[in-house]
Amino acid sequence: MTESPVIRPYRPEDRPALDEICVRTAHNGQDSRPFYADPSVFSDTFAAPYVHLEPELAFVLDDGAGRAVGYILGTADTVRFAERFRTEWLPLVADRHPEPSGPPRTPDESIAWLLHHPERMVVPELAAWPAHLHIDVLPAWQGCGHGRELMRTFLTALRDRGVPSVHLVMAVANKPARAFYDRMGFEEIAAPMDDSVVCLGRTTGHPDRL
C-alpha cells in the first residue's frame, strides 16, 4: 500500500530528484528544458549549492514512496552563504558552466552569470531579512497544500535557529507563485532589483498560523 505524502529532511540520495524538480519548474514556474541548451545550470545555481552547503535547512515533499517531488531550501545567513558559495561551491561547477566573457547573449549565459556572481545575493536593503529561500513543487503536486507545509517547516527551522526573518526573489512573470507567497504572508520589499524580478519578505514568527 502506498504511503501518504510527507515532508521530511533532505537526504543525499534525493539530489537527482531535486535537480529534476528545479529544472522542471525554473522557467517562471514551468519546465526550462525547451528554452535552455543545458538547463542543469539552474540546479547548479539555485538548488544544489544549498544542499551542499546547508543541508540542515533543506526539506523535501516525499511522494510516500521515497521520491522527492518538491522541496524548500535556503540559508539562515545570506552574507555568509554568498561567501561560501564563492569559495566552496563555485569551484566545483565553474568549468561546467563557464562565465560569459561579456554581457550574456543567451538564456544559458544569463543564468551562468548569476552562478559566477554570488555576491549579487548580498543587498544592503535586505539586511533585516538575513535568510533567504527557494521552494519548488512539481506541477502534479501543486494546489494540494504541500507548499504551505513546506513553508511552515522551513520557517519553523529558521525560528528555532533564532533567525528573525527571511526573503526571496521571484520572477514577476510567475503570477501563481506571487499569489502563493501573498497567502504565506510575504510582502514586497523595496530593494534595487531588475524589473523582471521582485523581492518579498516576512518574519519567521507564527509559522503554525499559515
How would you describe what is shown here?
α2 (40-46) packs parallel to α5 (107-116). The mean pLDDT is 95. This protein is an alpha+beta fold. The chain has helices at 15-25, 40-46, 48-53, 78-93, 107-116, 146-160, 175-183; strands at 6-9, 59-62, 68-75, 131-137, 165-171, 187-188, 197-203. The relative contact order is 0.15. A hairpin with a 5-residue loop joins β2 and β3 (68-75). It has 7 helices and 7 strands; from the N terminus they run βαααββααβαβαββ. Strands 1-2-3-4-5-7-6 form a 7-stranded mixed sheet, with helices on both faces. InterPro entries: Acyl_CoA_acyltransferase (IPR016181), Glycosyl_Hydrolase_84 (IPR051822), GNAT_dom (IPR000182). It comes from Streptomyces virens.
Keywords:
7 strands; 35% helix; 210 residues; globular; alpha+beta
- Would you identify the regions where 5 or more consecutive residues have pLDDT less than 50? none
Mean pLDDT over the full residue set: 95
Helix content: 25-40%
Q: What is the approximate shape? A: globular
**What is the CA-atom radius of gyration, in angstroms?**
16 Å
Spatial ordering of strands, largest sheet:
1-2-3-4-5-7-6
- Main β-sheet, in a few words? 7 strands, mixed
DSSP, total strands: 7
N-to-C SSE string, H for helix and E for strand: EHHHEEHHEHEHEE
If helices are DSSP runs of H or I spanning 4 or more residues, what is the number of helices?
Answer: 7
Structural class: alpha+beta
- Beta-strand residue fraction: 15-25%
- Determine the N-to-C terminus distance: 31 Å
